[in-house]
Amino acid sequence: MKKLFLLLSVLFMLGVAACGAAPETPATEPTSLPVVQEEGETVEEPTEAAPVVEEGPIRREVLTVAIGQEPPTLDVYNASNDVVFQVSDTIYESLLTNVDGTYEPWLAESYEIVDDTTIVFKLRDDVYFHDGSKMTADDVLFSILRAQASNFTSTLFGAIDPENSKVVDETTVEFKLTYPFAPIMEAFANYRGAILSKAAFEAGGTETFGRNPVATGPMKMKQWVAGDRIELELFDQYWNEKPAFDNLVYRVILEPSSRTIELETGGVDISFDLPTADWDRIEENPELVLLKGNTLSMVYLCFNNENPLYGNETVRKAIAYAINVPAVAQTAYQGNAEAADAFMAKSIPGYKSGGPWPYDPEKSKELLKEAGYEDGLEVKFITFQQQYYNAAIEIIQSMLAEVGITATIDMVDVATFTSMNNAGELPMTVMANSATIQDPSSALIAWPLNRTISLRHNDQHIQDLLDAGVQTYDMEKRVVIYEELQDYLWEKLYLLPLAFPMRAYGASAEIGNFPYVSTGIPDFAVIEFLGE
Amino acid sequence: MLKYAFRRIMAMIPVLIGISLVIFTLLYFTPGDPARMMLGDLATEAEVQALRDEMGLNDGFAVRYFRYMGDLLKGDLGTSYVSKLPVTEEIMSRLPVTVLVAFLVMIFAVLIGVPAGIISAVKQYTWVDSIVRVLSLLGITMPAFWLALLLVLLLAVNLGWLPASGLYGPKYYILPVISISAVSIATIARTTRSSMLEVIRSDYMRTAKAKGQSPRVIIFKHALTNALIPILTIVGIQFANGLGGAVVNEQVFAIPGLGKMMVDAIKARNYPLVQGSVLTLALLQSMVNLGVDLLYASVDPRIRSQYVIKKKVHMKETPVTAVLANTGELDGGLK
Predict the structure, then answer these.
(1) Is the ipTM above a cut-off of 0.90?
(2) pLDDT in tens, A342-396
(3) According to the 3-state scheme, what is the secondary structure of B35-58?
(4) Which terminus of chain B has fewer CB atoms gathered within 10 Å of its CB, N or C?
(5) CB-CB: which of B40, B45, B97 is closest to A23?
(6) Stated pTM of the model
(7) Looking at the domain covering B88-266, what would its CATH class be?
(8) Annotation: CATH topology of A92-211
(9) B127 touches chain A (CB under 8 A)
């Protein structure tokens, strides 16, 4: 027994020693919003009648944000997850910025579209990287050529001609395109067209750079504690107006309800991807603000058009008429989605309302009879575990049963689903597309013929219209082309648009100038603090 | 004992090689393409194949396995497909947290479960016994996720006594340890109770009582020591399970542990990370099993004697030893 107690004591001491292996505690525990007064500000002594008046913008030491997953990397040309851009939004900057549809210079001082395949940027001369080196045309060319070569951004920058794009001088870079590509300007203005330090990337490689990116943004990397948090600090040499905080901490909180709890208890100031069940509670909380709105996503019922059954337009429309699209959108998303009336989100230029597809069970039965399925039809859904898609499929299953269509549902894991999707093995499913930039070509990214997902429409007319849509820079002409395309898509119904889902993130009521953005990548640099 | 421990450690090597082959084969034949998972549904087939070539995924099974084993023998567990970091670095960034939490859970569970089991056994059929048994049943049947969220809502949100998530100091460990240890406490308490009841009914316990020994001596010196073997087994199993990471609780409490990392790696078909994690866990669990076996020897002289090489003992001849030698009860010979 004595030996046993001795053993347990030794184990206990080892355990106490192992406490040293715990995650590093930050210098200060992540809390909300301690106040840092601007230098030179004075605070009037309070009298019985006069309230305290603080002059100038309020600065805070720390802004804490909850994210739903850890980014795999912060090398923006090596990933496509939204969380990568949510974290790196204040680290990187782009050549241009989109101000209400107009492309204004940002890191560029000016730009010129010389012709359909030539764009020249004149760069600012006062921009520095986080390592203190100056941004030059060489860095800009390097960054965009990385974008052109990257598998993650080739759809945005694939038109860049790597052989003929060149540095003209220290502050001038000329980009050549291999073909006219209208979305390129939006790509240059997007966070996916970020400028990074060539020297820093070449010195460290993608692995090191991905954990410690060197760019021009107002915040720079301070510390990355794997699985726990990413800390950014203010970049003193930032060329523009600095944010209202000195440190920006992203806490990785995987569980959605835990993110809500941390927001409510003040553990974080902003929380992304809040579960829909918590939206009402946050809206009712006077200390919090719920920022919600539409996304750039469209959820749809995808038919495998290479399958003899779903390749029959009459069968597709018979299935579609049996589905009450507004009811599916409302019910599956618990009131937090709109019925999809187009093939792209409303905020995308070129959006044209053509739906939602009408609900007509009697018409459905007529079409089934016309297609030779008067006695019933068996169809199959394959899906993976995703709350909203699963709910939508179950609702559709019950609607189809009312017109004599028996639907079975097979559930597989997400990796198997992805493989099957790209092997063209999914008969029917519900999934979503999301535009990566606010351009119609991005919203219609599922439609080019070289896509391997199970949609497989094999319709050259669609490809021709897509090609025409990107080859003219005149937005009015582009809108006409995309409207024609959308009319055609309604006519053929290769897929059935179901819903435009909403998204929400929450913030402390003390945070101002923080509007909802449909991309889900808000700009933290413009945040203001409203005081208590 | 040291030789035995060394032999056990050496025996782990073929076991780990076998595990590496099994897990490699399972992952190889599991549907799903890591390159496609990284690039997404809308990447072209050409882009996916280019990435597969870059990652060496288009090589055959044997080529990939022997390449992996070659690197493994050099101590290289490979590079994560997603983060591009060495797998060793990924694992070591999370393993200490998982080990620490598992250790704290084990200590807490033993400190609560063993005494509860002892009291329940000693006070069998009383209200104390009933309470312990009901609480044990609750602990085993209650979903860990549900308990974790209940504790967070009560103690963090409503009362504000404890933080809701993260691991930034000692008080952050309280809620995760309590919620994860519920099952362990219940299991240890039940095992302790049944083991103690079995021992308490033994003849030697009656003898000890008849000899007038105090209840404390009877319970702790005689009963508990003889009941320890099953308890140690259960504690070892619970600790080994804890090393695999309490995935659900890691998610609720935002603990950067191994469990959630492994689940995400499997979903993403991040083969090197899955393989490296499984091998690491297999090694740890083997070490835990060895530790439990050594503890058996420590508490039970009968087991300990099996590890001791028998020596010929030369003893002085006496009437007693002569009789014992004749009957074969005395090993060795007489001087």
Answers:
(1) no
(2) 999 999 999 999 999 999 999 999 999 999 999 999 999 999 999 999 999 999 9
(3) HHHHHCCCCCHHHHHHHHHHHCCC
(4) C
(5) B97
(6) 0.84
(7) mainly alpha
(8) Dipeptide-binding Protein; domain 1 (3.90.76)
(9) no
